[in-house]
Amino acid sequence: MLQPIPRRVIDFHAHFVVPGARSEAWARWEEEYAAQFGRAKLELWRERQRKNIAARWRGLADAEDRVQSEEEAVARWKQQVDVHGLNAIVFLTGGGNDRLSRIVRQYPGRFIGFAHHDPFAPNAADELERAVTELGLRGYKVLAPVLSKPVDDPAAFPVWETAERLGIPVLIHFGILGGGGGIAGADNCNPLRLERVAQGFPGVPFVIPHFGAGYMRELLLLCWSCPNVHVDTSGSLQWMRWVPGDMTLRSVLRTFLESVGPERILFGTDSSALPRGFIRMYYDELQRACWSLNVPEEHQDLIFYGNAARLLRLPPETAWKPGEGTAAAMAVAAAVGEGGPRA
Predict the structure, then answer these.
(1) Which of 21, 71, 122, 283 would you call most buried, defined as having the most Cβ atoms within 10 angstroms of its Cβ?
(2) Residue 142: which of 109, 175, 98 has the closest Cα?
(3) 232 three-state secondary structure
(4) CA pair distance 267, 304, nearest whole angstrom
(5) What is the residue extent of each domain of the chain?
(6) CB 194 within 8 Å of CB 229
(7) What is the DSSP letter of 306?
(8) Any idea which architecture 10-137+234-335 has in CATH?
(9) Which range is least confidently modeled, 51-55, 207-211, 254-258, 316-320?
(10) pLDDT tens-digit series, residues 156-209
């Protein structure tokens, strides 16, 4: 039977999938594509993406076709948190700010939610303020490649000012987006577009996921320029196959440890659909890489837990204690066949 992870862990990068929900910016990008090239080509592009993504899921279970209720999905995600022994999981998206707030409030301290809306939308700064102060969300997520303007356009400065005043982390996806056949060369794919913003708002801890998603060199330079920029380890890291050089998770982790240091690296999985749930494989692979590099235990604790807890300003009492609720959760999971992905 699957055992809980024997260490403190916060998954800083997950998504609560809501059927039919799309990022505002991503939906707008698709509409612009359809207006320029036609809806038939958009559907062809979508279908090719689905096939490319499915071929690269490394043997993990496919997402379920059936539409489950929100209540069922919440319960199953809580099982995942308990079965794997996670201190907390951060849902960066979840069908809109109001819906995600409703979801994470059901398990405060274990479920954490981020706001996710277009920084160039009207009243975007006010919406971020509302999401944090009224809805209880604890950060802000942005998909840079599909934004309508450069990420450093002054039109978004009120959003960054709000984030700085509220003291929340901002996670911005740069790099390739959408799986094979997705977006790779948009102006906002380059993390260096954030340099002016990160330097202008030094009180904002920015987090760039997936080790830069194909823009690793640019991310390293951004981290050199801006000490408030962090990285996360999330995702399948398939981008390593598409860039020159013999890259592995071990070699990439070593590079970031030797440059930005363990204080600016956060563990994440990019887990989303059920029945996959929490992708334990990604934790196992990162743990093995840490061991093979002889990363000191105190540095591993920062990567897997401490850095996320610090950025999220979590109180000490949210820490999960070994054995707390685990036996019952594992029994329930076994009964429904929810033992986790193949690792």
Answers:
(1) 283
(2) 175
(3) strand
(4) 5
(5) 10-137+234-335
(6) yes
(7) I
(8) Alpha-Beta Barrel (3.20)
(9) 316-320
(10) 999 999 999 999 999 999 999 876 667 888 899 999 999 999 999 999 999 999
Task: Give the helix ranges, DSSP H, for 115-248.
Answer: 124-133, 157-166, 195-200, 216-225
Amino acid at 261: G
Three-state secondary-structure class, residue 214: coil
For 215, the 3-state DSSP assignment is coil
176: which 2 tokens?
């390739």
How many whole angstroms from its chain centre is CA 131? 18
Q: 262 with 299: CB under 8 angstroms?
A: yes
The predicted pLDDT at position 46 comes to: 81
**Residue linked to tokens 């059901």:** 106
Q: List all residues 6 or more positions away from 193 whose beta carbon is below 8 Å from its beta carbon.
A: 144, 150, 151, 152, 174, 187
- CA–CA dist 343, 152 (Å, integer): 40
d(CA 139, CA 121): 17
State how far Cα 195 lies from the chain centre: 21
pTM over 0.85: yes
- 285: tokens are 């692979």
For the stretch 72-92, pLDDT in tens is 999 999 999 999 999 999 999
Phi/psi at 241 (5° precision): -75, -15
Quote the CA–CA distance of 15 and 38 in Å, as a whole number: 30
- What's the CA gap between 322 and 86, in Å, rounded? 10
